[in-house]
Write a sequence for this structure.
């Protein structure tokens, strides 16, 4: 009985959340990306991002490909230096930046860093991706997906080493 | 004449004072818990940060009040021969200064975020490293709701006690609790606005909250200034001058040996001090009569601590008193 008593507000909140569809994006990123194109900035950072001739390999691109698949979206890879990419992201010209970023990045006040998808057991560094600031529906979607795929990350890291 | 005695509360007021003290401890506990719950859900929202700091500042008042309550009943000492009852004003000064500095800084911070069009990222909620798939905004609103209920309940209990004890510190504390829960309401609206895609909602709510913090500071400063300027006793909550000085004047003039009288009272913390100048028409037994007059006049209000009756040959001018 207590269990259901405690669960009721949670379910209530979830119902409201789904009913209102909160949060929403100020710029509608999630809606635009769904069935469309995800603009992903990449900067070489082994083993997290390995830039190839026609795209990218490595831990982070593998995760992002899964996210794009779940939306029926294709990916446009944009290759630039890390700080250039993050400046573009801040101006919302990109939808995600993959650059082997960690949660202590000085960019965290300018762009939206995701929740960590992997913690390095030796360095204790928490690895994150970067999303445009304030596109919260998109951010929540990416974080849920990363959380969903989190268990596969250690194997991915090992396979690339 | 006894000069070295500390101020004694009447029995019924003493009980209320104990109650006020218990409430201050409860405030510390409950608001501390609320502040903790806000801290755990904080995230990157400016409105949340502002509400959280405002909660922490609201903890200052009960702490200072409890400290002042320890000091104000101390016996006058060689260093402080008038006693320690002004400890409460010192507490007010501290709170006012803190509220202004922090409120001003938060206002600046939120205006900068508004002008630079900072869009607050609010993603999924995580607690102690565990990640949940719900939007963090809901967790924030939950924590804020808890804090709203806590502050509203506590403030509700404080108000009547503050009125009966004529304790302006406690009333200011209750007012602060009110400002606190209203600003947390603003934070909820701000977060919902962000949820609906209006990124400016967060910074606007934060600016609004910082304004109420600054206003709280003014409220406290007003008390200190009144105290420093030796303001005549004012009604609690209304800030109207009381007619007590006039009542003392009339009571003194009613004594058959008094020709005329003039009265000056000042409010220091929650006690009243002052002088009664009397022109006697009969100098027989003057010393005893004056001592008795001081004791009798003190009975007119329980807050009177030190009332000095001074015989003079004539009163050439006097400060006006409110009649009513």
């Amino acid at each position: 009985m207590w269990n259901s008593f405690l669960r009721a507000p949670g379910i209530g909140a979830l119902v409201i959340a789904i009913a209102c569809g909160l949060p929403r994006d100020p710029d509608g990123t999630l809606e635009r990306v769904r069935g469309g194109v995800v603009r992903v900035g990449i900067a070489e950072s082994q083993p997290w991002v390995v830039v190839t001739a026609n795209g990218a390999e490595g831990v982070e691109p593998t995760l992002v490909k899964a996210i794009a698949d779940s939306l029926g979206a294709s990916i446009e890879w944009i290759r630039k230096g890390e700080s250039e990419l993050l400046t573009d992201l801040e101006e919302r010209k990109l939808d995600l930046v993959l650059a082997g970023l960690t949660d202590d990045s000085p960019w965290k006040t300018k762009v939206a860093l995701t929740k960590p998808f992997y913690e390095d057991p030796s360095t204790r560094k928490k690895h994150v991706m970067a999303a445009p600031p304030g596109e919260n529906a998109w951010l929540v979607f990416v974080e849920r997906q990363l959380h969903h795929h989190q268990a596969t990350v250690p194997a991915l890291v090992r396979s690339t080493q | 004449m006894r000069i070295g005695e500390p101020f004694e509360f009447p029995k019924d007021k003493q009980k209320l004072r104990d109650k006020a003290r218990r409430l201050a401890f409860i405030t510390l506990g409950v608001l501390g818990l609320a502040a903790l719950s806000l801290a755990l859900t904080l995230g990157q929202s400016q409105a949340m940060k502002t509400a959280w700091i405002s909660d922490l500042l609201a903890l200052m008042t009960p702490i200072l009040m409890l400290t002042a309550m320890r000091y104000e009943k101390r016996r006058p000492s060689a260093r402080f021969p008038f006693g320690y009852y002004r400890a409460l004003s010192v507490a007010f000064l501290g709170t006012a200064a803190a509220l202004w500095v922090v409120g001003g800084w938060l206002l600046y911070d939120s205006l900068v975020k508004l002008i630079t069009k900072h869009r607050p990222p609010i993603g999924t909620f995580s607690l102690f490293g565990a990640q949940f798939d719900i939007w963090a905004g809901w967790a924030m609103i939950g924590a804020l709701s808890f804090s709203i209920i806590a502050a509203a309940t506590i403030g509700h209990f404080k108000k009547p006690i503050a009125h009966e004890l004529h304790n302006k510190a406690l009333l200011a504390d209750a007012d602060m609790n009110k400002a606190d829960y209203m600003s947390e309401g603003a934070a909820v609206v701000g977060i919902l606005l962000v949820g609906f895609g209006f990124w400016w909602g967060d910074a606007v709510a934060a600016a609004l909250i910082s304004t109420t913090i600054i206003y709280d500071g003014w409220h406290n400063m007003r008390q200190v200034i009144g105290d420093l300027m030796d303001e005549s006793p004012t009604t609690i909550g209304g800030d109207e001058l009381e007619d007590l000085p006039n009542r003392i004047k009339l009571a003194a003039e009613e004594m058959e040996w008094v020709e005329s009288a003039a009265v000056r009272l000042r409010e220091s913390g929650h006690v009243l001090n002052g002088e009664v100048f009397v022109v006697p028409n009969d100098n027989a037994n003057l010393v005893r009569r004056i001592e008795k007059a001081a004791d009798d006049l003190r009975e007119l209000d329980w807050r009177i601590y030190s009332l000095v009756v001074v015989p003079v040959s004539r009163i050439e001018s006097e400060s006006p008193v409110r009649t009513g």
The first helix of chain A runs from residue 2 to 20. Chain A touches chain B at residues 13-14, 17, 20, 22-26, 28, 111-115, 131, 133-136, 139-140, 143-144, 147 (CB under 8 Å).
